[in-house]
From TrEMBL:
SUPFAM superfamilies: P-loop containing nucleoside triphosphate hydrolases. GO terms for cellular component: plasma membrane. The keyword ATP-binding applies. Transmembrane segments: none annotated. InterPro entries: AAA+_ATPase, ABC_AA/LPS_Transport, ABC_transporter-like_ATP-bd, BCA_ABC_TP_C, P-loop_NTPase. Residues 4-251 form the ABC transporter domain. This is ABC transporter domain-containing protein. The keyword ATP-binding applies. One of its GO terms (molecular function) is ATP binding. It comes from Formimonas warabiya. Keywords: ATP-binding, Nucleotide-binding, Transport. GO terms for biological process: D-alanine transmembrane transport; L-alanine transport; L-isoleucine import across plasma membrane; L-valine import across plasma membrane. It comes from the Bacteria.
Length: 256
């Protein structure tokens, strides 16, 4: 059984079919990329996987459980976690506080525990703070933990988005264009961070436009075009696939 099984997934917005009858599997422990020209249906597919958008038809099974129709917070508590786009939502929070928010997914306290500030609350809070410390050390943000999120550079803010997602203990982590706007060194750091996450047992699915990154990092690539899956395979197979070459040339995208 694959970690994630997507079967005949379709999403229509009124008369427009954004995603049409796509199927693919994601194996545990792999780094998989979802690519395709603009408007191919990548974001819509992500939104269906996270529970943000309900599919018109088709199935999503994660660790054998049907995810279709479950709200986002339930999908997330099952282990499918995505990054919050734009750390701007955290303007008033410090780096440490923002990362602590990510632990909502597993910290086991109820309102009475919080209000009473009882022993259970203190133990859970300590566990969460220890995990946040580990994550901030891993992402090289620990020294900046007391800074407001807005005090970080653009590249650091993108890494913070990943740190917050890590704090939710993902089984499958969805990254939407993690390298967008990063310089060469930051992209290299990001790539090493993604390898590290994979080595710690997290499976990764990413949407990425940076083809050199996709081809280096992915073990498997799924290609969409006009809402349909046109190919999947290893980076080498995808690079030589006629349909993929046509889709990218047709879209006027030049090789990087
Ligand atoms: N909420 C929506 N309502 C109507 N149409 C939508 C909606 N979301 C996406 N679409 C349309 O669905 C199609 C696929 O969009 P989607 O954003 O999934 O593509 P994408 O591959 O992520 O594109 P990009 O690389 O440009 O982000 C597009 O034609 C888009 O205009």
């Amino acid at each position: 059984m694959s970690l994630l099984e997507v079967r005949n997934l379709t999403k229509r917005f009124g008369g427009l079919t954004a995603v049409h009858d796509i199927s693919f599997d994601i194996e545990q422990g792999k780094i998989v990329s979802l690519i395709g020209p603009n408007g191919a249906g990548k974001t819509t597919t992500f939104s269906m996987l996270t529970g943000l958008v309900k599919p018109s038809s088709g199935g999503i099974h994660f660790q054998g459980k049907n995810m279709v129709g479950l709200p986002m917070h339930v999908v997330s508590s099952q282990g499918i976690v995505t990054t919050f786009q734009k750390t701007k939502v955290f303007t008033t929070l410090t780096v440490e506080e923002a990362t602590l928010i990510g632990t909502y997914n597993w910290v086991n306290t109820r309102l009475p525990d919080i209000l009473l500030h009882n022993k259970k609350f203190c133990l859970e809070e300590q566990k969460a703070r220890e995990r946040v410390k580990e994550i901030l050390q891993y992402t090289n943000l620990y020294e900046k933990r007391k800074l407001k999120c807005t005090g970080l550079s653009y590249g650091e803010q993108r890494i913070l988005e990943i740190a917050v997602a890590m704090a939710a203990n993902p089984v499958l982590l969805l990254l939407d264009e993690p390298a967008a706007g990063l310089n060469h060194t930051e992209s290299q750091d990001l790539m090493n961070m993604i390898y590290g996450l994979r080595d710690s047992g997290i499976t990764i699915l990413l949407i990425e436009h940076d083809m050199s990154l996709v081809m280096k990092i992915s073990q498997h690539v799924v290609v969409l075009n006009f809402g349909e899956k046109i190919a999947e395979g290893t980076p080498a197979e995808i690079t030589n696939n006629e349909k993929v070459i046509e889709a990218y040339l047709g879209a006027g995208v030049e090789e990087e």
